[in-house]
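pls read this protein:
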Amino acid sequence: MTYPSEASASIEQYVSSLGEEEARMWLVRLSQGLIDRQNRYTTLENYVVGNHAVPSGDPRYVKALKELQRKSKTNYISLVTVSPTERMEVQGFRFGNDPDAPADEEANKIWQYNNMDLYSEIAHVTAATYSRAYVMVSPPMNGEKYPVITIEDPKCTIVEYDPANQNIIRAGLKMWNDDILGHAIAVVYLPTGIHYFRGQLANFYLNIDYDTLKSRLADAGNWEYFGMAPNPLREVPIVPLNWRPGLHGTSLAEAEEGFSIQDRINTTILDRMIISRAQAYKQRWAKGIELPTDDNGNVKPPFDPGADILWAVADEQAQFGEFKEADITMILKAVRDDVGDLAAITKTPPHYLLGEIVNASGDALKAAETGLVSKTRRRMKTAGWTWEKVIKLCFGWMGDVTKQKEVLAETIWADPESRSRAELADAVLKETTIGVATEIALERLGFTPAQIERNMKLKKAEEMRQAVLMAAQGGLNPQKPGQQMNSNGNPANNQTKPVRDDKSRSGGTTGRNPN
């Protein structure tokens, strides 16, 4: 957030007069919003990790079905959630309005310094699971050059947008129970400063109901103010990564609309397992036999079933038979239909979920992945905004205000579409033939900025080696005036052979010699 220069003095005075009071207001406000989101985050996490609600069965057999209920949970939601994140790879950043400009080297160094090749993937999976994640940009530590980028748990972090401008974040909060200090810790981030609070002992917030927890967090008297650190960025250094953003900071998880279908699949699989367990062996019947009883008059099973047991009765009128086995074909088909519905609604290729690829052509597989590719490109747009903002804040901590305020910034992504190396090489060859720069062609081929730079250096070195070799060969075989050189740098043998004169050979006459 920036202020007009003529108003900066009055604003600083206003901020200093508020100080702790303003920070406490935001602490109470944001902590309540954070607590309100916990139940939803727990539900989203449970579906992704496979801890679904146990499907219900016949209440008469609850104990007998407990094990089957646990085994009936099949986690398709996890596959749907990670399918787009596997195709999202940040390769670099570009500043300015030149789309052919190379990736920014300093931004790449910041990215590599923070191991973001790994942590960006964690951020994508976290956002796809919980509908959002947060990225914190902290100042350089211990005399280091580059700022620190950390991925923050949405269960512990929250921000609030300016209602008049959704591009501005008014305040942010990070709250957690510190096991080492034994207290709850809260940090309020404002454009004007970073404020630190210490709460009660950790067990003060544990093993209590929702309403009690919310009231204890909202009580400003439960928090001890520890002071403020300046914020030279004039912006909240927490950047939200909203996975499927909506208005007013809302966001959806990747597979949220598929939860009801997942429940339906689990219920149908439970039915299949019950039938399989109840009729794993053919059910037999007998009539015309006397049923034995125990000493108390209770009826006992007349036979002990087993593969090596012979049944015999004294009554020659007794009859035996067996029931027809159950057909679970329709149940299996119902599960496949539900999985197909899940694939269609979430734009996930069916062969990802069903694992069935039979005589499928490359064009058919490519068509099946079209929806996933388009969905991934949309996720790249939303995540790209986050990473651009993160890199800008990093430059802000480094004192580069120009790049911090740069409007034309771009995240460079790897191509999310699956292509064979032959297809990529053929496409790049055609593009370079019509004049596309080698760097752009390599970027489309999937090379990272570091790989492109290394390739260009090696190419220049090879060209220099060839030039030196050509020069050396030219020195050993100097070129004569008017003499051409062949491809190896050697003089071409272009001397003209004398042409024989037929007239002189034949004595000035043509035709056959009469002698």
User: Anything to note?
Assistant: The CA atoms of residues 191 and 236 lie 5 Å apart. DSSP finds 18 helices and 14 strands in the chain.
